Structure formats: C-alpha cells, structure tokens
Amino acid sequence: MTRLSVNINKIATLRNSRGGNNPHLIKVAQDCERFGAEGITVHPRPDERHIRYQDVYDLSKIVTTEFNIEGNPKEKKFVDLVLATKPHQVTLVPDALNQLTSDHGWDTQKEQAYLKEIIAIFKNAGIRVSIFVDPVIEMIAAAASTGTDRIELYTESYAKLFAAGKKEEAIAPYILAAMEANLLGMGINAGHDLDRHNLAYLIANIPSINEVSIGHALISDAIYLGLENTIQLYKRALEVK
To answer: In which domain, by residue range, is 152 found?
Structure first.
C-alpha cells in the first residue's frame, strides 16, 4: 500500500504571512498523523519563506510516523540541518536558489560523481535517501549507480496531461520509469501536482509506488473539506482497486 506523506509547507506559509504561530505548525503535523497520514514532509529553503530551520528541529522531536526532509544538498546549511535532525528520509532536489517550486529532476548522468558523494554522507548517518528524477529511462538507470535507496518521480507533466484529458499519454513514461526502477532495485516515491483527482489513476497503474508526498493540493482541499476528511479522501485514492 502506498503511503501518504503530507507536506506542510503551505501551513508554514500561512503562519508566516501574519507572524505569530497561527496556524500552529506542530499541532497541524500531529493532527495530520492523527487523521491517518503516514508521514510528514517539509521542504525548507534558504530564505525560510515557509518552513523555518527551527521548525525542522521542532518537528524532528514530535513526528511519530515518517519524517521526510526535502531540499538542495548543495546548500551546506541544508546538509547540516539534515545530519543534525536525522529524519527517516532525505529527498534531494536540484533547486536553484530562490526557486519558487521544484521544476525538474537531477541529471543523474552529469551529476553522478557528486550524487554518489553526497548520498553516501546521508546513508552513513543512517538516513534513507531519495532523489528527485524525471521519468526518463536514462536518468533512472544512472540513478541506480549513485547508491540512492529510492527515486522520487517528478509528476508535474503527468498532472498536466491528466488534467488535459490525456490519461494514457500522461502515465506512459511513468510506467516505463517505474519498471526500470523496480528492475534496478530502487524504491519509488512520487510527488508534485498530485491531487485527489489524478492520484488514483497513478497508483492503479503503478502500484509499486512506496510513497507520495502531497502538500499544495491537499491543503487547498482542506480549506473546503476539512483536514481530517481530506486526508481520508487521499488515502482512499491510494487504495489499489
């Protein structure tokens, strides 16, 4: 069964927009777990525009499911943060400084030597590593040589084509990418622009996905549907029919 990890960046954005601590980030994380989420994801950025570095330290003490920290390992502050808090998983994303949101995976061929080195640092600390990749067979194959435990399939193109009514075209490269990852012994995560409308089709076609991390759509749905109900709807979408 695919696990649901809730990305709470948007909760931090709302809190930061007004100052203070409302909504209370720690309580929201605890409530997500209480409502059935099987993980909590955060993606701190250097400008701390949503998740603050102190939030990560605070969350590391209270998350009882699986704690996943995303970020760019080329920022030393991020590496230091992950090694200090020791989450269950670190997801390495090749973001540029001040990038609004993640928009591409690693070039696992050109970055092979670097990825081997940085992945080894995290794995030696006992942290599972996942790396963000596009659904391109050559990139999946090269990812296997880096020593990563998992890949996270970047699903923006899937979501866009699905929304345009092109479901078969949307899913095709992801099926091939997942088959390659399975063949090479890597676990598979998925994330970016997944929502309660496109999630079930993804999982029905790729049931080997270990985990999805979802933030923007889930938190947006929660405004209308309530957080507990929304988490349950997403979990139902993850059930293979």
So the answer is: 3-237
Q: Spot the catalytic one: 33, 38, 50, 192.
A: 192
pTM for this model (two decimals): 0.95
Look at residue 95 in the predicted model and tell me its pLDDT: 74
Could you read off the pLDDT of 159-218 as tens digits, one per residue?
999 999 999 999 999 999 999 999 999 999 999 999 999 999 999 999 999 999 999 999
Which residue among 33, 38, 43, 111 is the active-site one?
Answer: 43
Q: Which CATH number characterizes residue 56's domain?
A: 3.20.20.70
Q: How many domains does the chain have?
A: 1
Is 70 known to be catalytic?
Answer: yes
- Among residues 70, 111, 152, 180, which one is catalytic? 70
Q: Identify whether 192 is a catalytic site residue.
A: yes
Task: Please say if 38 is a catalytic residue.
Answer: no
pLDDT tens-digit readout, 71-125? 999 999 999 999 999 999 999 999 766 555 555 789 999 999 999 999 999 999 9
Q: Which of 135, 103, 138, 130 lies closest to 206, judged by CA? A: 135
